[in-house]
Amino acid sequence: xxxxxxxxxxxxxxxxxxxxxxxxxxxxxxxxxxxxxxxxxxxxxxxxxxxxxxxxxxxxxxxxxxxxxxxxxxxxxxxxxxxxxxxxxxxxxxxxxxxxxxxxxxxxxxxxxxxxxxxxxxxxxxxxxxxxxxxxxxxxxxxxxxxxxxxxxxxxxxxxxxxxxxxxxxxxxxxxxxxxxxxxxxxxxxxxxxxxxxxxxxxxxxxxxxxxxxxxxxxxxxxxxxxxxxxxxxxxxxxxxxxxxxxxxxxx
Length: 252
What we know:
Layout: E1 4-15, E2 19-30, E3 34-38, H1 45-53, E4 60-65, E5 68-69, E6 77-80, H2 92-102, H3 107-120, H4 136-149, E7 154-158, H5 166-181, E8 186-191, H6 194-200, E9 203-207, E10 214-218, H7 228-233, H8 235-248
Parallel strand pairs: 3-8, 3-9, 6-7, 7-8
Antiparallel strand pairs: 1-2, 1-4, 4-5, 9-10
Helix pairs in contact: 2-3, 2-4, 3-4, 6-8
């Protein structure tokens, strides 16, 4: 594994009312790799992701990105939300370019960059459409394009494929791996799907039920240079799925 770009040390989080979401979480996320947070509902996966993003505060511990302590959102991190978080009144083009607009990038330049990533995620021709005219899968592609447009080193993805059908989900998984082959991005990914985690991940962090702590870390020995169908039939992939289920079934 490569050097850690994100480090989580002793993170704890308790919400109002005394609900303890996370307790003493220690993790390292390697640069240029896809790491997945996996565990039962309510174990603190999304909470941890938002703490890393700087979107919510933590009560104990610290998060460091490239060695610097995190005190809030930063340009090196981009967040892809489960519920898309698109501007309903804005076109696809403006939604994708919105992060650059907030940074003060000139309109011509930000639209040039946005069009490039709209094309890459398969939405060319939909630049002037609005979110109400898009399917759930297309909205999620807009969210991914927006994250890529700001050229953040770290992409944080909160169950990005949970609202689409199985066929679209598989295509998204394949497209994400293809995008990452051509870009040295670090991805921290949240999912409830063991199969999705095994298919996508270089590192899988298994969390315990609330309060979430690290149960164990799995690093699948899956050769992702092969075709998607070959990967899903691969013995290492299938063994990884069984291994993870062997750990998580005790929490059901």
